[in-house]
Amino acid sequence: MTQFLDISGLCARIDADGQEKEILRGVDLSIPPGEVHAIMGPNGCGKSTLSYVLAGREDYEVTAGSVTFHGKDLLEMEPEERAAAGLFLAFQAPIELPGVNNANFLRTAVNAVRRARGQEELDAVAFLKTAREAAKALSMAPDMLKRNVNVGFSGGEKKRNEVLQMTLLQPSFAILDETDSGLDVDALRIVAEGVNRMRSPQFSALVITHHKRLLDYLKPDRIHVMAKGRIIHSGGPELAEQIDTEGYTRFLAEAA
Amino acid sequence: MPAVTETREAVEKLGQSSYKWGFETDIDMDLAPKGLNEDTIRLISARKEEPEWLLEWRLAAYHAWLQMEEPKWAKVAYPPIDYQDAHYYAAPKKKPGPKSLDEVDPELLRTYEKLGIPLHEQAMLAGVEVPEGEEARMPVAVDAVFDSVSVVTTFRKTLEEAGVIFCPISEAVKDHPDLVRKYLGSVVPTGDNFYAALNSAVFTDGSFVYVPKGVRCPMELSTYFRINARNTGQFERTLIVVEDGASVSYLEGCTAPMRDENQLHAAVVELVAMEDASIKYSTVQNWYPGDENGRGGIYNFVTKRGACRGARSKISWTQVETGSAITWKYPSCILQGEGSVGEFYSVAVTNNHQQADTGTKMIHIGRNTRSTIIAKTISAGKSDSTYRGLVRVLPKASGARNFTQCDSLLIGDQCGAHTVPYIENRNMKARIEHEATTSKISEDQLFYCRQRGLSEEDAVGLIVNGFCRDVLKELPMEFAVEAQKLLQISLEGSVG
Amino acid sequence: MNAVTKDTKATLQPFQPRLDAVKGLERTAALGALHRVGLPDRRVEEWKYTGLRFLAETPFAGPVRAYDATWAQAELQRLGVTAGVGAALARLVFVNGYYAPDLSVLPEGVSVAFFSKTGSFGPLACPDREALTALNTALAEDGAQISVPAGVDGGHVLLVSLGQAQAGAPISFHPRHSVHVAEGGKLRLTCIQGGQGRYLHNPVLEVSVAARAELNHLTIQSESDEAASLATLYAQIDERGAYNSFVLGVGAALARHEVHARLSAAHAQVHVNGAQRLRAKQHGDISSVITHAAPDCISRQTVRNVLDGQSRGVFQGKVLVERIAQKTDGYQMNQALLLSEHAEIDAKPELEIYADDVKCSHGATVGALDDDQMFYLRSRGVPEAEARQILIHAFLEEALDLIADETAHALSAHIMATRYPLSGEEA
Ligand SMILES: Nc1ncnc2c1ncn2[C@@H]1O[C@H](COP(=O)(O)OP(=O)(O)OP(=O)(O)O)[C@@H](O)[C@H]1O
Ligand SMILES: [Mg+2]
């Protein structure tokens, strides 16, 4: 128990066209404050599902287990309450919001979260200033703020936009679901720097990735291997190297 | 200027009810006896000191009306209306036409203050996209119509200097009889339809605008309509004539008190655009929609039509319809002048038991005429909303183009959304494209917004505003801000 | 339906002597309905774009069983029924509404009965709602009642109608057909309609597709240029059943093909596709009402019109999604190509939706031949007339490609080629 994020025995399933499909089959994972952890694992093993369940997506039914976040029962909370409590999810496939101006969306979100956290809301001028600076730090074109949320964004632009949102919402816990995929070499570094800037004793992250490269920048404290809906192995940063060269076969065999 | 306040404040101050404009103003009224007959019409005409020709015109309309049947083709249902059970004339007792605001009944001023018109601008972050550097805004001249009578028109001096006539139509009848006589009923004839005939017989006031050749009206013109008195119908008549090369932007807003019984509103708006003229007509319709059980609310049967008479003339209708128990309204364009352009941008929101049947008609008569229709329909609660539109291309309209996009959004499983386009083409050189979609708000979008901390209601509001963006961006900025708020308020209680 | 104030009796005049002789429960009930509303005029919303003046002007005699066999055989050849790919198929041939055993080849594995023998009206048609169905019910002479047993593939069956009216002696016939495909069964059905002279062909066809059954149904309407062809179809599709229909309209002076399809159980699917090519003063109307009455159903509709001369094409397509029909997936597209200054298209695609979790869309386009495409073809040396034909053909072919069955597609191509030979100007 870390008193920060504790997942224990978490099972979840989805109703796919009338059939119950078991996806998470007893996930145990604790993340202490101030640490960055990574999850790696084969396609379809349930990484994104875990991130959605943590963020409170309704399609998934939690059938067993518990999650506490800052000592509170996370699973009892509405998605927006989780966001206000400090949880942020960078989506593997960010959603498009046609007609919704990006800056307007960001300010609405930031102020909703600030309100819930008892902080003063930002006025338009102050917000725009912060947002422009944050966008610049991520080398985003200035017109990204004026465009509609994710509409017509390239794959890489969408990912940067997710990181921009994270920077502005100031979460205490961020889940980055394959935020590195689709990024060019420079963008990867810029995004990693963005995450690193947030590192502090009050900030933790769970990074889902398939590539060692991002982890080289982020230097995670722990790496977990997920397969068939469970964490089957955990280790230090050196695991990344091992997976990169050997793949998952050995972990899968050991777990079986 | 009367009543300049911040919209949001106005909205917030107005108490707990979900309809924030539902107060009643206590003013001494001059009421005609209930009922509709020749005497009523003579009384209205006499009160207005009208010339003989207008009385005859009214009586002809009345006789046409007697022969007509209420249209039944729209997808709206309501108990029969007793046309004898309403007052057809109601006016504040004080003599209308004050010279300055000091002369206006302070109760009235307070009403307009509560209504928050015209609206204070808000920053771009309210979601209104203002092109950079274009933040300076035009002043707005207001004509306020209270029940049946125009009570105040502002900025008349400035307008007069520019040669623009903007006054109550009752005054125009006296001061500019030739203009009125020439154009009144020239776009919507007295016998056009049941409600137009009724309006022609009993209309009591409304606005008149005349923009002479080559003049760009120096400010936005705005009329605010308010039904206040009990058991009155409101039958305003608006006539806008824009001469060669001239242009005007006109805004119309409407509200009414909350009442248990239904009130009738049957307006007629006629627009005439000559060569190279352009008219932009924007409406934010927020008549009382009735309560959540469907009691009360305005019956809104409106005929709006514009004639693009001259070459390259342009008429653009933008409407945001959130109010009324029943809306029956099809702002149309008759595209006669070669190369003339008609546009219709509409957002219609219904909630609770509201019913809306609205859309447009684009009649392509001249060569190379073009029309665009963007209609966004949002249904929630137990409401029903229909888009009904006609695109007709006549044999001479070679090169005519129409593009239509209708999208409907359903919120909840007790409402209905319907799309009924009519496409009639008799010219092989015309091109018509029509697209329509119906769906619900995407769960993915909702979840994405909520993950970022927005409440479900705010998320719905945001997504709905995005859905309507293509229409809202056609509104003058102040109206756009008001409209966005309205959308959100109209959908309150429809999710979760 | 709105109460229409008119002399309803007068609209029935052309059929009067026969209507006076109507007997039997269903028939008299239908007659009652007819007397209440009469035949529809333009004030009836569903008939806004198609008038029935044609009928009012003509006193129609009843059909006789006797027919000219030489003519009928030649006509069957011409229509591709007894020549080419059609020759190998089972066929039920009706002449002037009566079954003609001498011209027919009964199918195997499929049971066939005849309305003239059974006298049984099906459960799907609505004489109360559709006046032409009421007229059919009152006057129906004969019809095929086809049924495919559960799990059986009934193969490909042709249902042919020939009309032959002697000059100056117009007739009307009102066939009453039904097709039932039982659970897990399959059938390909191609209806081919042709004829000569002035007549009214007013068939009613009831289609029921049971659970997991499949019916692929093509209608080729190539009636006499002087005829009126007013067909009404009622289809009901059960759970996971599929009804794929296509109508090709090239004949008749006045034609209407009206489909009422009801998706009555989950995961059912319907295609209501069509194409029409009209010229001279032809009037062709393709109308449909697709009702989603159960969740998770799919409907698809693509209709293309090519209109020349003073012809008039009408498309009315309503998709009704009932409150219970969540997860409906509906798509509808109507396109028209106008080839002449005097041609006209009227389209009314309509969505009426009461369920919220749906994905429905429709589209419509109207235009002339694409100038750029014309220019491109001509710049490659194709003469103008031929370039036109190529583009028109391509436009229609995109719809005809929806006829999945090869034999059915070949039958439709045959009719198209007879009516509109590809080389040179139109016949
Ligand atoms: N809505 C759904 N309907 C059906 N199956 C689903 C649904 N959502 C997830 N699944 C299934 O659950 C399993 C886990 O999916 P998940 O997206 O969590 O995998 P992942 O580990 O993130 O994979 P990747 O590395 O490819 O992103 C997959 O087999 C997926 O197909
Ligand atoms: Mg994933």
Automatic annotation (TrEMBL), chain A:
SMART domains: AAA. InterPro entries: AAA+_ATPase, ABC_transporter-like_ATP-bd, ABC_transporter-like_CS, FeS-cluster_ATPase_SufC, P-loop_NTPase. Coiled coil: none annotated. Residues 2-253 form the ABC transporter domain. It holds the Pfam family ABC_tran. The keyword RNA-binding does not apply. GO terms for molecular function: ATP binding; ATP hydrolysis activity. Keywords: ATP-binding, Nucleotide-binding. SUPFAM superfamilies: P-loop containing nucleoside triphosphate hydrolases. Belongs to the ABC transporter superfamily. Ycf16 family. PANTHER family: ABC TRANSPORTER I FAMILY MEMBER 6, CHLOROPLASTIC. This is ABC transporter ATP-binding protein. The gene is sufC.
Automatic annotation (TrEMBL), chain B:
One of its GO terms (biological process) is iron-sulfur cluster assembly. It comes from the Bacteria. Residues 225-467 form the SUF system FeS cluster assembly SufBD core domain. InterPro entries: Fe-S_cluster_assembly_SufBD, SUF_FeS_clus_asmbl_SufB, SUF_FeS_clus_asmbl_SufBD_core, SUF_FeS_clus_asmbl_SufBD_sf, SufBD_N. Pfam families: SUFBD_core (PF01458), SufBD_N (PF19295). Residues 160-217 form the SUF system FeS cluster assembly SufBD N-terminal domain. Belongs to the iron-sulfur cluster assembly SufBD family. PANTHER family: FES CLUSTER ASSEMBLY PROTEIN SUF, UPF0051 PROTEIN ABCI8, CHLOROPLASTIC-RELATED. This is Cysteine desulfurase. It comes from Acetobacter orientalis. The lineage of its organism: Bacteria, Pseudomonadati, Pseudomonadota, Alphaproteobacteria, Acetobacterales.
Automatic annotation (TrEMBL), chain C:
It comes from the Bacteria. Pfam families: SUFBD_core (PF01458), SufBD_N (PF19295). InterPro entries: Fe-S_cluster_assembly_SufBD, SUF_FeS_clus_asmbl_SufBD_core, SUF_FeS_clus_asmbl_SufBD_sf, SUF_FeS_clus_asmbl_SufD, SufBD_N. Signal peptide: none annotated. One of its GO terms (biological process) is iron-sulfur cluster assembly. Residues 26-152 form the SUF system FeS cluster assembly SufBD N-terminal domain. Residues 171-395 form the SUF system FeS cluster assembly SufBD core domain. PANTHER family: PROTEIN ABCI7, CHLOROPLASTIC. Belongs to the iron-sulfur cluster assembly SufBD family. NCBIfam families: sufD (TIGR01981). This is Fe-S cluster assembly protein SufD. It comes from Acetobacter orientalis. The lineage of its organism: Bacteria, Pseudomonadati, Pseudomonadota, Alphaproteobacteria, Acetobacterales.
